[in-house]
Amino acid sequence: MEVRVLKYFLAVAREGSITGAAASLHLTQPTLTRQLQGLEKELGQKLLIRGKYRVSLTPEGMMLRKRAEEIVDLVDKTEAEFNSITDIIGGDIYIGCGETDSMKDVASVMKELQTEYPDIKFHIYSGNAEDVTEKLDKGLLDFGVLIQPIDLSKYDYITLPDKDVWGVVMRNDSQLAAKEFVELDDLISVPLIASRQMSKKYSADSGFLDWFGDKFDSLNISATYNLIYNAVLMVKAGMGYAITLDKLANTSEANGICFKPLHPKLESGLDIVWKKYQVFSPAAKLFLERLQVRFNG
User: Which domains does the chain have, with CATH numbers?
Assistant: First the structure.
């Protein structure tokens, strides 16, 4: 497969039209059609369903779209790394991170480095540990900022000094809003909006299984979320109580919601991780050196 042809395929998937994709690629429609037919023949699979006005992806086409996006991103990243190898330090650094207030410590290092080397550009991808490590393993990210505990056997890492506190975001008019903190028994009978990290599949890795003990299966998890913004909207709509880390949601009085920590306290540390034996671009290598100085002393 040629990367060029994969880009053609992605253009068709994006436009939903061979005519529209051909125009965006500055190709004739017959040329683009031949390239797509050649790709289908090479893979031995039908990738597109051609309608009268639109085209859609077959299940095999949707699978290729995901892989093609990863391949093109990796090729672009590799080209950018080699283009940045000059006497002037610059280039792109890709960081994946979960939602955490401690990211501010990493951002201060980013700002320090960018002030000295304005040709360095940072690209942030937000997601949970599963999302970030998948992209890290595929070489699409240089670093990940992950909430503990996490399996670090495949990575080198730096542990950040701060810890994040788990608690519950709720409406100010909810029955638990008057409490100083939230205990286990408070959560058994109310609808919970839980992160995927807290779901039963991941509970053994997140500390929640120990905190909830034998009452974990009694929880009423009515909704799950990946990033806190949408969870807050569900809280405001009255769907339930969102279990999350402190300092992520805007809990000002005017916003109508508040945060109450769990009791006993449940905390999570954070690690900056990268693949073992990773070959860094000059910019990423310099960033790692600054992280090590800042957090390892």
Answer: 3-82 (1.10.10.10), 88-161+270-296 (3.40.190.10), 164-267 (3.40.190.10)
